[in-house]
Design brief:
Pfam families (chains A, B): Cupin_2
Distance between the termini of chain A: 15 Å
Largest interface: A-B, 39 and 39 residues
Keywords (chains A, B): Isomerase
Domain Cupin type-2 (chains A, B): 32-97
Structural class of chain A: mainly beta
Largest sheet of chain A: 8 strands, mixed
Number of strands of chain A: 9
CATH architecture of chain A: Sandwich
Oligomer: homodimer
GO molecular function (chains A, B): isomerase activity
Protein name (chains A, B): Mannose-6-phosphate isomerase
Helix content of chain A: under 10%
Strand content of chain A: over 45%
Chain lengths: 118, 118
């Protein structure tokens, strides 16, 4: 047990790679992660889990088949499990995301990145 | 499915009562909530769940039996399940907290407040 506050600014200062989530805490079998994104990801869905996005800085468009949601700082959206989505950020954007530990970020273990702890 | 960003500022503007979590989203069987706190809560623990705190504004001291953690804006802490804690805020403090749906905020259904959706 680490009795230290987890500071988002410190964590974000520790890396610069894009679309590569970093684990900052564990919570009930989930990974709490920060990630920097810019550009467009791919269309995917997670059959077994909702996908929580919280914007710390920048602007994130979560494209979905029946409409987009645009998030600025201090805004959150939960993509329900099974719903196809494609995140896009026209500027560099910093997010908190929460997914069950081991969830492939692309929805497919073949193409997923490894999530590292920082 | 609501295709609308969940804005923390808007949600926090919608209520003023203290220590009364408001549900703003669902995520994998959990309630994502905002809450305003000031003063000291009570010592309690949750035997079956971790307790995630994220500070939006103000300053939260999470007192634990083997030491305190102090959180400012943009800082997070996860109290592991079973660990006794007593949150305290010397000024009004605004938080995001995440707990499984139905978790009593005091650790005891007898004394817990009802969490309402906003």
């Amino acid at each position: 047990m680490t009795q230290t506050a987890i500071n988002m600014g410190d964590k974000l200062a520790a890396f610069n790679d894009l679309w590569s989530p970093k684990i900052i805490a564990g919570f009930n079998g989930h990974d709490v992660m920060v990630v920097k994104v810019k550009g467009e990801f791919n269309w995917h869905s997670h059959p077994d889990t909702d996908d929580l996005f919280f914007v710390l800085a920048g602007r994130l468009t979560i494209q979905m088949r029946d409409g987009d949601v645009v998030l600025g700082p201090g805004e959150m959206y939960v993509v329900p499990k099974g719903v196809e989505h494609c995140p896009r950020a026209d500027e560099e954007t910093h997010l908190i995301i929460i997914e069950p530990a081991g969830t492939p970020n692309t929805g497919d273990p073949e193409t997923a990145v490894t999530k590292t702890k920082i």
